[in-house]
Amino acid sequence: MPLTTRPAVWRFADRDVVRTGDGRIWHRGLLRPRHWAVPGGDTPAAELDDDAVRGMLAADPLAVFAPVRPDAHRPLPGRVLDSADALRLLDIRPATGAVLHRSVLDRVGDFLGSTTGSLRRPVPGLRTTDIRTSLQGTAQRHRAARITLDRVHGRIHARYAIAHTLHTHTYVLTTP
């Protein structure tokens, strides 16, 4: 039976997290910027680089990646895509797809002190046309939506509010 390879995260950001199948949790930027480490591991030998983490994600079917979630009280990172033409002409090459990570901040979460909201199940396997269509639909349905492209970290963020709930979508760009 042939193995199918999962798409790899194009770029990582400090404060990203990976949980492996054996329960270890790796944090990027924990000890040093742009390096992965496990809490309590003070030795540099216990650090990994981005390529090693990509390999770990590809090899372990139970490994889970969670991107850093933007703070609700700060502007979204990246360049603002504020026109229909900017979304239509969006170029995310060399990325070929994305995984959508969603978070929701409601009154209860805000009351409890959360600034990023609670996570929802990720949506993997989005193609570039799916991303563009989703962002255009968000911009049309929610006129006050804020959409940004963070090319440095390989992410597209969309934020909008419905009633008293703040929705944040983070598209983590992937490569084959």
Task: Write structural notes for this entry.
- This protein has 176 residues and is α+β, with helices and mostly antiparallel strands.
- Strands 1, 6, 7, 8, 9, 10, 11 and 12 form an eight-stranded antiparallel β-sheet that branches. A four-stranded antiparallel β-sheet has the order 4-3-2-5, covered by helices on one side.
- Strand 10 and strand 11 form a beta hairpin.
- The radius of gyration is 17 Å and the shape is globular.
- The model has no long low-confidence stretch (mean pLDDT 89).
Q: Which structural traits does this protein have?
A:
single chain; 176 residues; alpha+beta; eight-stranded antiparallel β-sheet; four-stranded antiparallel β-sheet; 4 helices; 12 strands; 19% helix
Entry summary:
The protein is built from four helices and twelve strands, in the order ββββαββαβαββαβββ. The protein is globular and about 50 Å long. It has helices spanning 50-59, 84-88, 107-111, 128-141; strands at 8-9, 17-19, 25-28, 36-37, 64-66, 79-80, 97-105, 118-119, 123-127, 146-150, 155-162, 165-175.
**Helix/strand/pairing class, anyone?**
alpha+beta
| Rg from alpha-carbon coordinates | 17 Å
H/E element string? EEEEHEEHEHEEHEEE
The share of residues in extended strands comes to 25-35%
